[in-house]
Every structure is written in structure tokens, then in C-alpha cells.
Amino acid sequence: MRFSHLFIFFGFCVSLAQGERKLEFNRDIRPILSDGCFHCHGPDEKERKGGLRLDLESHAFKPGKSGFSAIVKGDVEESEMIARIFLSKDDDEHMPPLDSGKSITKEQKEILRKWIAQGAEYQGHWAFIAPERPKVPVHPEAKHPVDAFLTTRLQAEGLEMKKVAGKETLLRRASLDLTGLPPTIEEMDAFAEDKSSNAYEKALDRLLASPHFGERMALEWLDLARYADSNGFQSDGSRDMWLWREWLIG
Q1: Residues 164-201: tens digit of each pLDDT
Q2: Given this model, what pLDDT does residue 164 score?
Q3: With contact defined as beta carbons under 8 Å apart, do 97 and 89 qualify?
Q4: Number of C-alpha atoms within 13 angstroms, CB side, residue 212?
Q5: Strand partners, 63
Q6: Is 114 left (phi over 0), alpha (psi -120 to 50) or beta?
Q7: Using CA atoms, how far apart are residues 151 and 17, in angstroms rounded to an integer?
Q8: Residue 212 and residue 202: Cα distance in Å, rounded?
């Protein structure tokens, strides 16, 4: 599982640990509206239809040209958005329009319905929302707080943890995840012979201290930043960028 996927999965676990999952605009709603609704009801004034803008809280609750409010907090029946997206496909009032090439799945419709029923709370940009430390769910069998969150999520899905893998498998997984390299024979032997209660923790500390961990973590960032040691195809002269690469890895 990629690290980004694990963080998303962990976020769901946090919500479940706090009871029935409360939908969040940035995580659950914005992606649906952005894909299915913002083209006609978003920031582009030239493309906007019906005087309705859904990307801003300050506009989303105002009545459109039809005279109805697309979203009425806590009232699904009075929210025109719900009426429009649940209409028959033969109805000209259906949203998104049938000829738009966009669609909202049945599951997404139910998410929108639930969000409005919960109060239709908007959120600002995620970078300006202070993170809150969640309470760790109580699971006596969990050896680590992360295990407690994962167990909560798995139970909600009707699943359960697998048994702990053998030492060789654990070290191989950790080494590939953290450094991108398989463990050496010497590292495998040393880990197998370590009978201490924190053998795995010591192995993780060793991997995290490895320069290969820096290389593994820096690789995706370097790709996103279009890192290169040359200027490119048309003017392929070298440039001294390796200093930044080494700094980032360090």
C-alpha cells in the first residue's frame, strides 16, 4: 500500500473511531461537485448556469434563477440539488444534464443526500484547517495506536487483521517500502537471530537512518519537481542541480 493511500485509509479510520462517520466537504463532497457540477455551477462565470455557484459557501445556499435553493441545510426534501440529481433520466431537468457527458453515481448521490442531512457544512482550503489529534480507539489486542485505528476500520467492513507475518516477510516488506531495496542476507540473518521484544522497531530505526530511505522518499518529489541534471532536449547542457538533490535526500 502506498504511503498516500495509507494516509487516506487512516483518515477514514479516525472518523469511524469517533462514531458514525461525518462527511467532510473537502474529502467527500468537493470531488463529486468538482467532477459533476462545477463546470456549470463553479468559478467560471461565463459557463455558469442558472445563477448557481456551488464552489463557495457564500453563494451555495442562495436561491438560483429558478427561485429554489439548491442546498437547504439539514433538509433533503427542500434541497433542489437532490430533486434534480434523483430525477428520471427522461426528465429535462435532470442534473448533470444528460448531454453533458458527466454523471453522478448512485453512491455519490447518497453521499450528497447524507451530507445535506448532516447540515451541509462547507470547508475552506485544507491548508488553513488546523489538524486535530483524534482519540485512539480502545482495542486491547492492538499493540500500537495505528493498529487500533486499522482494527476499527476493518471491523466496520466486516474484516479482521491477519496474523503477524514471519520475520523474513516483515523485514522484506519494510525494507522495500522504506528504501526501495530488498534486505541483504546479512540483514535477514541478523533480524532472525534478534530475539529481543523490540527487534522489529530496531530494524525500522536502521532503515529510517539509511541514506536509501532519503533516496526513496525524495524520488517522487524529484519527479514532481521535474528534476534533471540537464536543461532538456533542445538545449541539453548540464547544470549543477545535484546539490539540491543531495540536500533533499539528506
Answers
A1: 899 999 999 999 999 999 999 999 999 999 999 999 99
A2: 85
A3: no
A4: 14
A5: 69
A6: alpha
A7: 10
A8: 17
Full-model pTM = 0.60
Q: Are 245 and 227 in contact (CB under 8 A)?
A: yes
- Side chain identity at 67, as an amino acid letter? G
Residue 104 cell numbers, joined: 453522478
d(CA 236, CA 207): 36
Look at the alpha carbons of 184, 190, 195, 201 in this order and tell me if their dihedral is positive or negative.
negative
CA proximity to 57, closest of 70, 66, 45, 47: 70
**Residue 196: its H or E element:** none
Q: Are 233 and 196 in contact (CB under 8 A)?
A: no
From the number of C-beta atoms within 10 Å of its C-beta (0-12, 13-18, 19+), residue 217 rates as middle
The stretches of the chain forming alpha helices (DSSP H) are 3-17, 30-36, 38-41, 57-60, 80-85, 106-117, 145-156, 167-179, 185-193, 199-209, 211-224, 242-249
